[in-house]
Amino acid sequence: MRDFKVLFRKLGRGFVFCLILYMIFVQVTEQIISASIKDEGMGQERNKSIVRIQKEPENTVDVLVLGDSLSYTSISPLQLWREYGFTSYVCGQPGQRIQETYYMLKTALKTQKPRVVVLETNTMFRTQGGLAGIEKSVEEWGNYYFQAIRYHNIWKSLFLKTHTGEKSYKGFGFRCSVCPYKGGDYMKETGKSEKVSELVRDYMDKILELCGGRGAKLFLYSAPSPLNYNYRIHNGLEQYANGKGLDYLDLNLKLDTMEIDWKTDSLDKGDHLNLSGARKATAYIGEYLKAGYDLPDRREDAVYADWAAESQAYRDKEEEKLEEMRREQESGV
Q1: E strands within the chain?
Q2: What is the dihedral of CA 297, 301, 307, 310, to 10 degrees?
Q3: pLDDT tens across 296-311, in order?
Q4: What's CA 294's distance to the chain center, in Å?
Q5: What is the pTM of this model?
Q6: CB burial string 10-48: b at 16+ within 10 A, e below
Q7: Domain residue ranges in the chain
Q8: Which residues does residue 217 pair with via DSSP β-bridges, in sequence order?
Q9: Does domain 39-331 have CATH number 3.40.50.1110?
């Protein structure tokens, strides 16, 4: 009997210790998340979009954009606001993989109820071998449910007083370098196709379930990018979209219509668009969204006065940057 009492006392002390440890962990986590959201410059670059979307006023984003760097170099939310009046936000990350896409959406849907979720498709073809895919899935699960893991390196900013990152305009930033693509036609028609992997299909099913649960329509698009797209990938995406009943827009087949000029619209030899190219892609996608989806024009709504003010500041900066680009091109720099 005495042995049982000793055992129970030990178990009780162990339980109390674990409970205290858990409470400390919860408090630390809350402080880390609060600090990250309060000052986004403290976190890693790839975590900033997940912080920024949580700072947006609740249920004010009509169009949520997901994807890797091709998303935030091809869609400008404040240009969409200026030209069409609906609100949007780009939650892109450098090299975003499909697991990150899923948890990014899951996080955004805590505070937003978008009418349309737009996914840039390059993330669907980021190769992950069997073990790598499992490891990434576990990592992102941990980042989502134990957020101290995601923001663990914030101590560097807190103690070293370091801040990183560029000015973000609803997830879009000005990228004004010009490095032409000179490779010629990269969308030569073929009957071959690239298959969407089972891992990606599984996560896409989860993304579709999230969208359906919140009444959002999922729309797929491919940004102009000679280094990342070809007709085989187009065919694979088209087959996938048709099988799921999704809209799919491949801007790599709309270059002439958009008047993309790879001499002036490429940031880095055909990998990403620069500001000039992004303006053209955004205008085309905006028209597509306006025609195909029931999106409200909120420009006369006083609730969105901050959007109007930020849009004007963005417009002024945009004109300044475009003029700088024109001068550099004229001087041959």
Answers
A1: 63-67, 88-92, 116-120, 217-222, 247-250
A2: 110
A3: 999 999 999 999 999 9
A4: 22
A5: 0.85
A6: eeeeeeeeeeeeeeeeeeebeebbebbbeebebbbeebb
A7: 39-331
A8: 116
A9: yes
